[in-house]
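Researcher: Re-running this chain for the archive, since the previous output was lost when a drive failed. Same request as before.
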Amino acid sequence: MNIVKVSSHVKRNLLMYTVAALLIGLIVGYVFSDFFKSHPIEVRDVIIAVAILTIYPSMIQLRTENLAKSAKMIKEILIGMVFVFLVAPIIAFTFAKAIQDSYISLGFVTSNVVPASSASLGYVLLAEGNIELATILAVFSLIGAMGAVPAYVGFYAGISSIPLPMNKIIQSIIYTLLTPFIAGQLTRYYFIKKRSHLHVKAAFKERTNIRSHAFECLVRAAEKDLQLLEKDFKNLVSCIEKQLEKQVKPHLSLATMISMLVLICLLIANKATLLIQKPSIALEILALQTAMLGILLALITFLDKILHIKHGEHSAIAFISATKNQSVAAAIAVMALGPKAAIPPALVPAIQAPIAIIYLQILPKIKGLFS
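Model: Regenerated structure tokens:
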């Protein structure tokens, strides 16, 4: 099986597969409704496990080692953080009040205060945006979310008169954000960064017969000045890292997408009877999320123009602020908020991807607005 082709196919048709997962979830949940009602704890545990499986690969791809390079863009980072931690939550709070069921409205808020996903970085790449800035915004939103998510969810639960044990929220953050982040970065260090150093050392030691990932990088460098490159060890290590990342990325992306589709199917199946009896719930969530993303992206575009932000930096700010990791939201909802609160994270991916793709099509037409 060609993993690269399969991963590329699923990514191109992700919207179609997402809709299929939603429909399969409805059918399975309706047919086996008695099972889901009689095994709530087992279903919850499976959902949490699948959610963590979805989150973990994206944490491996997060390049925290490049944070120092982008730390100089203070203005752009501040703008991004304002939209992530202030503007987006305020809009989410406002729109969530339109949802009658308090637990579903709490799930809607949770869906919009969690950090960005690896797919957000993918959108930035497609938009030819500043990937270094996008990475630092993603990392900061992840770190900040560990405190912001409990604060926002707890605050909204309080004003909505929903009893919410804060210890469950903290526990869910540890399981869904902190643990996968640490595990992902350790995996990245040992299987990418450490291996890169070993490949470079082996390549220089066995110059006559190089059989490693360093070969291609060394051949290119030899055409220029191999001795100069030998002195610049870091550049060669970076070259090998990129090759290893390129090799493993299709596997990680495919694992993330398949896990996400299974998660969507399970979340919908768990509340299929309710959604079939009241389809207006799904339509309401999708409509509110569409309106929220439209307003958020419009505000980001307007403010970035006024503040003379460049096109590449604007793309990074826009996609990191607007697109969220719904696997994290789903895991938090199931662990701490209840199954009804997991409905929005299951439905949001069906509209988040199309809105992001539409904005990708708009960006080249409004490129002249930015510095």
